[in-house]
Write a structure and sequence with these properties.
Elements: H1 2-24, H2 32-61, H3 64-90, H4 96-124, H5 126-153, H6 158-167, H7 169-183, H8 188-217, H9 222-240
Protein name: Peptidoglycan-binding protein
Keywords: Membrane, Transmembrane, Transmembrane helix
Organism: Marinicauda pacifica
Amino acid sequence: MPELANVLFFALLPVLGNFIGAISIEFHVASSRMVSHALHAAVGLVLAIVTIELMPRGLAAMENWQVGLAFGLGGLGYIMLMKAVTFVQSRTRSDAGSSTWMVYIAVGVDLFADGLIIGTGSAVSPGLGLLLALGQLLADFPEGYAAFANLQARNVSRKTRFALSAALVLPATIAALVSFLLLRDMAEWVQTSALVAVAGLLTIAAIEDMMGEAHESAEDRTGSILAFIGGFVLFSLVTTG
């Protein structure tokens, strides 16, 4: 089916962005400052997706209390995902190997969320699915850079890093297909509610996870603030195009 092919293609875009970010690590050793800048840019992009594309659609089609409820459910969904990661972490030994897997699981969870976003947007319209996929591609480049810089710092071999990066196709494509198939024939209010819930998930992930990691990497300076602004402006230019 052409629709499913489109969704699969869209879902591969954030994986591509992550992979390009991971590959760029192979050409130099990343500094903590560069990782912080990359994450700030990713947060700016994510918040632009939420404020420019997702929330306005919800506010135009739903009552304010419905928007708030859907947003809250999305935030709770993020908490559940993080609880699952913490559960897996509690079942492993706290050595260098298990720490590496926790970094990888976090990246996989992020791309799974990207797939949900793209599948949900594609159920509303192909154009929205593509736009959200492009936004996630841009955001996943700095995310991939930061995540695989972490793996590089843990002395994970290049071959293993490539294999781990390639395997990230699965969570993104599976989540995109499942969310698209579930939502494509649903009522408009259900699709819109799902978009707002995705906005909640993205917002919590950006502020609590990505920004927290950015601040752990290095303290804020002018460069990191400019990176945040640049990420937001970049997505606004993409939507204009």
